[in-house]
Batch of 2 targets.
Target 1
Amino acid sequence: MPNAIVWLRNDLRLDDHPALRAALEGGYTPVPAYIHAPAEEGAWAPGAASDAWRARSLIALDADLRSRGSRLLVRHGPTADALARLIADSGAEAVFWNRKYEPTTQPRDTALKKQLRERGLRVKSFNGSLFFEPWQLATQQGGPYQVFTPFWRAAQAQWRVPELWDAPARLPAVPATLADESAASLPLSPRPDWDRSFWQHWQPGEAGAREALEVFADGALQGYHSERDRPDRIGTSRLSPHLHCGEIAPWRIVRMLEPLRNRDNGADIDAYVRQLGWREFAHHLLHHFPQTPDEDLNPRFRRFDWAEPDLTLLAAWQRGRTGVPIIDAGMRELWATGYMHNRVRMIAASYLSKHLRYHWSYGARWFWETLVDADLANNTLGWQWVAGTGADAAPYFRVFNPVTQAERFDLDGVYIARWLPELAALPLPLRFAPWRQPEALATAAPDYPRLPVIDLDAGRDAALAAYRKSGPR
DNA sequence: TGTCGCTTTAC
DNA sequence: TAAAGCGAC
């Protein structure tokens, strides 16, 4: 059988893998390959936490391949050279991959496709990660959607969920002449190993993704619609890092959840699928507005009076020492697990971009380095949304009050107590705003900040004043 | 997927 | 006196 390179990127799975399927159905021996080439992703090369995740995911993928008689080839970039060498060494006649949509990698992949075809290879790319290609949905005028609701309405009108496809139990062996390099040898793990504590919370890899889906389907799905905002509960799917690496296809999630639909959980399933819709929307926006990882989409903010970050305060935000418990709990959850509950992400992001008035890109960069689910489309949309600078964004004047939010969503203070154990001794209303009783705080937690780094009222007022000053419209 | 301050309404 | 309603940011 002729060989076909199956170039793996953010699709580290075997089931529901269009490129792998195309190789097999085309009568090829798949040669699965991963090429490490972070420099080609420019300023948004994967951050440390998602690298650490990917290192484990690659090892899991290699094990899955080996259990079926194949294996993963690992190579170093430049990608064009690594592919050329793989093609030469294997005599491959075809190259298949699933598309990525980032502004740096997409032009690279388009150019590669052209070059490889000119050399007589059969090359084909597929949609391996989205319900819709980012260019597929368009407004009546033919432009991109900038508001989620009409985007989602259009998506639902054309809704089609791909068939599931299970990879065969046996795969053809990769030619023995192709050299091995262990996935474990890639420089993807942070030093020092700050990620050590992550892995009691996560199992990277396709099996881990499938297990996370089962846990969600049997648990948090019931009541997801209301509980997903509760950081103190396991109220979310926790599938985001698995989705980011492509360890599971979103259509498999939908196909697994839909049969569970009953009288009680219809709103829960709809609410979850709607979140997958935001992921689609994020990719749609990144495709049409490729500058948005670095620039405000709304031009009004070019003349907005962002504050020059004080590096000490920025570090306080990063490491959970702002003096505002719900934010510090979230930032410490992030540091300890590589993840933060979505509701808390919004509260922490609002504080950075409004109370502190730092440009959201400082926060986006920190999340990029520390989130295991860091995804350029989602991270960009999320930050521009909270900061009020993006598409269909919360208006800038919508300022979250972190005390009110904590009272509403962490009502028993359990989340705060979990990540800020030093505050667990404080009684309830005080735990949300400990500066209101300095003596009690000093006794319970002598090392915790006495006051928020920015006073809540003063920060809010300054943000609103800056917004007014940035002009009409 | 907000907050605040003010007014109105209900008791 | 407090909950509910409303407009402005």
Note: The CA atoms of residues 346 and 382 of chain A lie 8 Å apart.
Target 2
Amino acid sequence: MAEALEGRRSTRRTATLASLAAELGVSRTTVSNAYNRPDQLSPALRRRVLDTARRLGYPGPDPVARSLRTRKAGAVGLLLTEALSYAFRDPVAIQFLEGLALACEDNGSGLLLVPVSPEAEDVGAVARAGVDGFVVYSMPDDDEHFAAVLERPVPVVVCDQPTDVPDVDRVGIDDQAAMVELAQHLAGLGHRRVGVLCMRLSLDRNDGFASVSRQDSARYEVQRRRLAGLRDGFTAAGVDWSTVPVVERFDHTEAAGAHAFDQLAERHPDVTAVVCTSDILALGALRGARAAGRDVPGDLTITGFDGVPAAERAGLTTVRQPSLDKGRAAGELLLDRGDRQRSRTLLLPTELMVRQTSGPPKS
Amino acid sequence: MAEALEGRRSTRRTATLASLAAELGVSRTTVSNAYNRPDQLSPALRRRVLDTARRLGYPGPDPVARSLRTRKAGAVGLLLTEALSYAFRDPVAIQFLEGLALACEDNGSGLLLVPVSPEAEDVGAVARAGVDGFVVYSMPDDDEHFAAVLERPVPVVVCDQPTDVPDVDRVGIDDQAAMVELAQHLAGLGHRRVGVLCMRLSLDRNDGFASVSRQDSARYEVQRRRLAGLRDGFTAAGVDWSTVPVVERFDHTEAAGAHAFDQLAERHPDVTAVVCTSDILALGALRGARAAGRDVPGDLTITGFDGVPAAERAGLTTVRQPSLDKGRAAGELLLDRGDRQRSRTLLLPTELMVRQTSGPPKS
DNA sequence: GTGAAAGCGCTAACAG
DNA sequence: CTGTTAGCGCTTTCAC
């Protein structure tokens, strides 16, 4: 980045507040006031200062120097699970971003997307971010970037995962309870032979079946809890969870969902319901199932999680979560003045959306 | 923002590089080197420095102070047409963002979304952004925020509009030529009675027909050029452009597109083709047309512009533009070292995608 | 209404 | 390999 930006425009690095003051024969204070406290000087003098500034090409107080002095950067840092660019492919993340952006806007704060290189050791980006606080979106347990955030002496708000971090506010949903509810819905319809499609459970790629022990030790708390909710709900309905096939996918795409469905269906052709831990996966599964000639919900039930717009269009039965509200709440939690006593946790409501991809089992 | 972030965590503002050095009995340089130039001191000493830092709760060099000293912020600022949050609703903007994020990632730069309040005078946010350069996405002519960006002594890259800004690089497409091609396609099919749906042409809301003079004086250059392209293309086919109805919409949503279609169809029921200057509008028009019982493309042709995923799914005939590439190119143009001589303009290719919403006129 | 003094916390020559 | 010297550009009491 060093010389990268040494361009045409940047060469006109010219006047400073001090040189302007000298030129005008006034003190630096006065010039500073002209910009920051217009009421502290006569309008005439202020006008003179600003005019001279323009003539000298003085661009106004340097933002970085001001930040150093005032001890505030005017920006919120955002740390994301994946590469920065991935966020713009995931509809849930996009909605979260929109909500967060809204909160920042209201506050006049900038939103700094912290570059987290692919698998980078480069924790440096976190240390180098000039921000007044961090919002951390859905990180795996024991993430080093997150650890780096915690090192910084600024407030932090986590969305979703990980939970139970001392001195850190959090906003999320009750993933486990939401899944219990979904399981009850399906069990109520009569489903007993179910299969599950879930997102990655650890940092190492495992595109295939996930054992119960792998499920329980998942490094992604959200997935762990969603699976736990399904286990609780189905177990209560008399299903032996250890017999329930869970297929994991590292990539979070519809294609992955479709392929995971094939894998599940091949080995367990008898399942009557496929529960997916995300809408994207479910949408893919739906496509895969229909491509395989299955009738949904006629002879197969498929459900998702998240409540993205595409799921609604597809009539997918799913659990809706307020992604945008999570973003806004995270921003507000970070930026809101006031009662910042002990760490707060905000759990937002979810809603089971029964639509057209779930029904009673065929037989 | 001031006290907003004075929280639990932030109170542990403690050691500085200087106090650490004092504690260790070494110079500040040494401590600085421990962080920035590990090769400049013995591993043993470095370890001692780092250990003591941890013990004292020293979080490492303050990013803002470092930025002041090194004269680089490590971040790129992004200025967007609308409120920050709008960007996350527009699929074209999202793709642009993704591309830009990719370029930033590669460079290890942060991406700072500059908060531009709704209709804010608050140009201050631009002045206050600690960034090494700005990417400006599709701004109207004579925008004051953009003007504020130009005041800053840093490099600037504009995407799309406005064009012809001195000393500023630009990336975009040839909107006019792309529309000429589309017009030729439609004229070739035999369409002579056409109608147009376009995005806002100025900052004041005008949800209705736009006169030729309003078209020509549009403050949004992209819309101006797309309309000009249509005019050129259809005029060449013998159409009197002054008779072509152009319906404008301030909001860029499918609902607006559908409603605009109704408005057009009511007053000009005889048009055989509706050309929209964006896919969103076209998707809305398509919905409106079908809701009105029209057969597309049977008795009505509808086209879009942009090439968003939803347009592909809908089989919409449109002009595809490489939104992601534009974002990446903008980032690279800003960050790439090297030949930064005079201002560069990068025009990316577009492609006419003839799909299932265009066909010969009915009669 | 205006100025003087005192750094914010850090890095970068350049000596040693 | 380590320390000295000089600020980066600005804001902010606190007197005048």
Note: Confidence is low (pLDDT under 50) at residues 1-12 of chain B.
